[in-house]
Design goal:
By secondary structure, the protein is mainly α. It has one domain. The chain is built from ten helices and no strands. Helix 1 runs antiparallel to helix 2, helix 2 packs antiparallel against helix 3 and helix 7 packs antiparallel against helix 8. It is found in: Cell membrane. It is a multi-pass membrane protein.
Length: about 240
């Protein structure tokens, strides 16, 4: 029965994560409620995100929503940020990381109201003095803590005047990069419960395909509302976790 639940959790979490980030809002609490040890749950999430994110990017690339050249620019920066974040996490208390996450999400939430035209541009992605440090910083955050990484990246690409569909593809390749190293470390340390992880992975691959198809149809005005709902949910969840 747990395998079926994890398959369904993978579908729901990855569909949401593909569209607006915040898939961890669904997957991690649900896995913990099923009795999975916390490190095994995080490891399962990293493995499923690695493969589902890559499949999403490939699908968007085949539909000419994003170029391979743009995707390859993301990988080294996100990977370096993820590794750096992992090192920083060993030196900082979880409470500090939680406060940083809440601050970043509140800032993004406020900026979503200031920005009046999200995802209306159709610019190519370039590495410059704005995009490179921002990507690296979000990669550090993802490696150190994680929740809301995809949501923050969508806000960044909106600011850079990149279309929503292309932004989804770029977020997914960044997620692949940052999760890949983490997945290897969890496998190497023997934290993975393979049967449950594979059930989540199959659901995540299915959710990735659903999410990409919905992303190609969703109206930009709805994206803004969805991003705000996910951001507000992340902030509430983190505040509750920190104080209760």
């Amino acid at each position: 029965m747990d395998y079926i639940w994890l398959f369904m959790i993978g579908i729901i979490a990855t569909t949401l994560g593909t569209l607006a980030g915040g898939g961890g809002l669904v997957s991690l609490p649900a896995m913990l409620l099923l009795g999975m040890p916390v490190h095994s749950a995080i490891g399962a999430n990293k493995i499923s995100n690695t493969f589902s994110s890559l499949s999403s990017f490939i699908m968007i690339y085949r539909r000419k929503g994003v170029s391979l050249k743009e995707g390859l620019k993301i990988i080294p920066i996100s990977l370096a940020g993820g590794v750096t974040g992992g090192l920083i996490a060993s030196m900082l208390a979880e409470e500090i990381l939680m406060k940083i996450a809440i601050f970043l999400l509140i800032f993004a939430f406020i900026m979503s109201f200031v920005s009046k035209a999200p995802f209306t541009g159709n610019d190519h992605f370039y590495l410059n003095k704005q995009s490179a440090p921002s990507l690296f910083g979000i990669g550090i955050y993802d490696g150190a803590f994680g929740p809301g990484q995809g949501t923050l990246m969508l806000y960044l690409f909106s600011y850079l005047k990149i279309s929503y569909y292309k932004a989804v593809g770029l977020v997914r390749v960044a997620t692949f990069s940052s999760c890949f190293g983490a997945a290897i470390s969890y496998i190497a340390t023997g934290q993975i419960i393979w049967g449950l992880t594979l059930a989540l992975l199959l659901g995540s691959l299915t959710g990735a395909q659903i999410g990409v198809r919905l992303a190609g149809m969703i109206k930009v005005s709805y994206v803004k509302v969805l991003l705000r709902l996910v951001t507000a949910s992340l902030i509430i969840q983190m505040v509750v976790d920190m104080f209760f």
